Amino acid sequence: MEKKILIPIDFKIESLNTLKHALEERKHEKSTVILMYSAYITDSITELLFYNPVKIIKALASSDFNDATAILINTYESSLLSLKIELFTGINKNAFLNFYEAQGIDLIYLPKDYCLKPDKNGFDPIPLIKKSKVEYKEVAWASDHSSTSKNELNQLFK
Amino acid sequence: MSSIRKITILLIISISLILFFLGSSVYYYLSNYSYADFYKRLEVRASVAEKRYFESNQRYAQVLKNIRQEHLELLSDEKEYIVYCPSEAALKQIAETNSIPINLLNLVYAQQFANFQKDDIFYYGKKRETPKGFYIVIVSAKNYYNTHHLILLRKVLLIGGLISILLIIYLTHLFSKRFFDPIDKIITKVNSISTDNIHLRLDDIKNTDEIKRLTTTFNNLLNRIEIAFETNKNFISNASHEFGTPLTAIIGEADVALLKDRTPAEYKEALQKILKQSERLNKISQSLLYLAQIGYKENKFNYTILRTDELILQANEIMNQLIPKNKITLDFELLPENPKKLKVMGNKDLLMLAITNIMTNACKYSSNKPVIVSLASTNNEIVMIIKDQGIGIPESDLPFIFDPFFRASNTAAYDGYGIGLPLTQNIIKIHKGELSINSVLHNGVTVQIKLPIAKL
Questions:
Q1: Is B263 exposed, middle or buried (0-12, 13-18, 19+ CB in 10 A)?
Q2: Domain count along chain A
Q3: Measured between CA atoms, how close is B311 to chain A, in angstroms?
Q4: Which of A151, B74, B97, B187 is the most buried (most CB within 10 A)?
């Protein structure tokens, strides 16, 4: 059955491991994926005037990150129908539930041990998601501690 | 200096043109409007005068006169003429007695009404037909507004324009100087850097983003040049060392053997040692030659379409023969579903050599600890990652690992002469790929090879 999956990310390649495990688990079913980045909306009125989530996402995604998503899309080409990145700017449970409903999410995958490390304007939405009492699954992978500080493509591999 | 002047002149010319067009259009339209408006005012006065004159009702005529006096101001030198004109021939006489231009009367006679200007006096004339014959109503006045206000406007525009042009000259000069000064500084500083003081760098300028970017670009370039210089120095010392060691061994061995008479077995042993060192010399010079060849004959290799997963499998088989104890694991978990995305354009032998080189290094410097070889592909590149758990590369040595004959400081215990990596890098380079190496000391090396996907 086709399902819409939500995965929180921090634009670090390591956070895409959640996606990799989710897709591996659902290899025989179709899925559409929404990668969610959470960020506080700016207070500045001039910045709000030119507010453009597409541009924010583009600025945050490094070329390595885009390569990593491309690798996953290529690997799960037949089961992954579409993948898009959305910006979540809510701050409470209701805002998240709204987002959840508006996007028509069926299932959420969360990293179990990995802690999201978003940029200075971003925040970690996982506590919010857990509080919202929606269905979620946790996946774990062995984190490679030797290179955690760097944002390298090899963090996606074993 | 010349570009400051160029910019100043360009700006002055363009801004003066804009000012000129703006000023002249303001002047032109305003004066046009003032003429039209003045004739309108004359026309109103003429029609009021006409109504008053021909009105049979005396009360009504009085009202009109009052309105005229109260609401229509008297223009300077305003004159009203209402003259009877029995025929066209009488026009000349009327003109002479009232000193009205004859041309105006002719125009009014022909067109019912007419505007006319003589010197600074403006006329409006109108023809009225009555049962008795024609009357001609004429109002004339001087256009005070035109003569005084427009002249003032002209003066203001001219003086204002001149002052603003002077201001622009000053400002553009100031701004372009401000903009070009840091560039001048950079030029002098860069000029002062030569081969003797290549370690000098440009000072950080907090001025503008672009200038700052320029200085960082220059500094990065200087860094790379410095490394290239270092490489050159290293190459000579490393190469002489690599060639020197076996030669010293050969000379020493031969000297010792020739000191006194030896038994045939001793000679044989000495010759074998000499042979071994000569073979090593031969190997070094051959690989050096190979390296040079790949560097210079980029276009002379046969390129075919290759599947990278097959390449890795074959390389693994070769590794199993070369180092039977290896622990290479192939990770094809992230292999793309579409096999087209695994195909690259390349020379099979060269790519095989590059991959086995990296694999050999991974096994050698980790003393056969597990090595993981992964393959994946993005939309335009295949990505190959070879991860080992070996001794790693010290950070200070990382910039030099692609130099021929360079060996990292912690590799003394391992056999090798520093040709493999530069060779591999050259091979990847001629395939328009990318080779990057990340390492943490004692924690293994991760080699990432990117090759462009073949366009079919």
A1: exposed
A2: 1
A3: 19
A4: A151
Among the residue ranges B1-10, B64-73, B89-98, the one predicted with the least confidence is B1-10
pLDDT at B358 over 70: yes
Which one of A24, A62, A71 makes the best mutation probe of the B interface by having the most chain B beta carbons within 10 Å?
A: A71
A62 and chain B in contact, CB less than 8 A: no
Q: What is the reported pLDDT for B207?
A: 64
What are the tens digits of pLDDT across the range A32-43?
999 999 999 888
DSSP symbol at B453: B
Q: Which residues pair with A109 in a beta bridge?
A: A137
CATH fold of B300-452 reads Heat Shock Protein 90 (3.30.565)
SS3 B364: helix
Nearest 5°: phi and psi at A45?
-70, -30
Can you give the residue range of the structural domain that contains A81? 3-156
Location of each CATH 1.10.287.130 domain in chain B: 209-296
Global pTM value = 0.64
pLDDT-based confidence at B201, cuts 50/70/90? confident
Residues B126-152 as b or e (16 or more Cβ within 10 Å = b): bbbeeeeebbbbbbbbbbebbeeebee
Say yes or no: B438 contacts chain A, CB-CB below 8 A.
yes
Tokens read off for B174? 């100031």
Beta bridge partners of B124: B115, B139
Q: How far B376 CA sits from the closest chain A CA (Å)?
A: 6
Contact between chains at B334 and A77 (C-beta distance less than 8 A) = no
What CATH fold (topology level) applies to the domain B209-296? Helix Hairpins (1.10.287)
Task: Assess B388–A contact: CB distance below 8 Å, yes or no.
Answer: no
Summarize pLDDT for A21-77 with one digit per residue, the tens. Answer: 999 999 999 999 999 999 998 888 988 898 999 999 999 999 999 999 999 999 999
* Residue A78 forms contact with B (CB below 8 Å): yes
pLDDT number for residue A150: 62
Phi-psi map region of B304: left, alpha, beta (phi>0 left; psi -120 to 50 alpha): beta
Q: Residue B88 gets which letter from DSSP?
A: G
Question: Rounded CA gap, B250 and B273, in Å?
Answer: 8
Q: Considering only the beta carbons, identify the residue of A71, A78, A154 that sits closest to B387.
A: A154
Residue reference for tokens 């363009």: B14
Are the C-beta atoms of residues B137 and B128 closer than 8 Å to each other? yes
- The dihedral built from the CA positions of residue B292, B384, B320 and B303, taken in this order, carries a sign that is negative
* Each residue's pLDDT tens digit, B289-340: 877 777 666 667 788 999 999 999 999 999 998 889 999 999 999 999 999 9
Smallest CA–CA distance, residue B373 to chain A, in Å, is 9
- Where, residue-wise, is CATH 3.30.565.10 in chain B? 300-452
CA of A68: which chain B residue's CA is closest? B378
Q: Do B334 and A67 touch (CB under 8 A)?
A: no
Name which of A75, A146, A152 is nearest B334 (Cβ-Cβ).
A75
